[in-house]
Amino acid sequence: MQNIIIAGFGGQGVLSLGQFIAYSAMYEGKNVTWLPSYGPEMRGGTANCSVVVSDEPVASPIIAFPDTLIAMNKPSLDKFVDKVKPGGLIIVNSSIIKDKVKRTDVKVCYINANELSLQAGNTKTANIVVLGAFMKQTGLFAKEDVIKSIEKIFAKKPKVIPMNIKAFEIGYEA
């Protein structure tokens, strides 16, 4: 079982990043829950989502202690950093978060997501860059299944699919 919390400001693609992970899990025949949470402000307010991926039925979408935290901004890192299980993974968007994680009992991956998204052609793909880094760090799903989820979610906007796949590859390689 993999318990993941993704958190940041509204408008950073936090909820959709969780959806990409959830769809990838479904493509691999896993059981999955996706639970969004956001303030009334939406864009610019705080947002987070919980994703639980398991081979067994998922009893609850609520996560008290995640295996992985993906922090897209400093308030989110501050809020969840101490809840990550020892031995877990914290992915930090180092474009926005300049602080270093002080915990030594977790693996930390710093990804310059905003700058790397420019290489894909659009800063709105920063969440997809982070998705690539997450998949590289965890090996949770096959790259092909993640690409399928990108194609599915953007099916109504086919022009943005190549740019998002490029962002995923950039994050995966970074």
Short description:
By secondary structure, the chain is α/β, with parallel strands linked by helices. It has helices spanning 14-27, 74-80, 113-120, 126-138, 143-153, 161-173; strands spanning 2-9, 31-38, 46-54, 68-71, 89-93, 107-111.
What structural class results from the helix and strand content?
Answer: alpha/beta
Distance from N terminus to C terminus (CA atoms, Å) equals: 26 Å
CATH classification class = Alpha Beta
Globular, elongated, flat, extended or rod-shaped: what is the shape?
globular
Question: What is the quaternary state of this protein?
Answer: single chain
Biggest β-sheet strands, sense, barrel = 6 strands, mixed
Helix and strand element order: EHEEEHEEHHHH
What fold name goes in the CATH topology slot? Pyruvate-ferredoxin Oxidoreductase, domain 3
Mean pLDDT across residues: 95
CATH superfamily: Pyruvate-ferredoxin oxidoreductase, PFOR, domain III
Radius of gyration, CA atoms, in whole angstroms: 15 Å
| Stretches with pLDDT under 50, minimum 5 residues | none
CATH-scheme architecture: 3-Layer(aba) Sandwich
The count of helical stretches stands at: 6
Verbal overview:
There is one protein chain. The protein has one domain: 3-Layer(aba) Sandwich (Pyruvate-ferredoxin Oxidoreductase, domain 3). The protein has 174 residues and is of the alpha/beta class. Helix 1 packs across helix 5 (143-153). It has six helices and six strands; from the N terminus they run βαβββαββαααα. The protein is globular, with a radius of gyration of 15 Å.
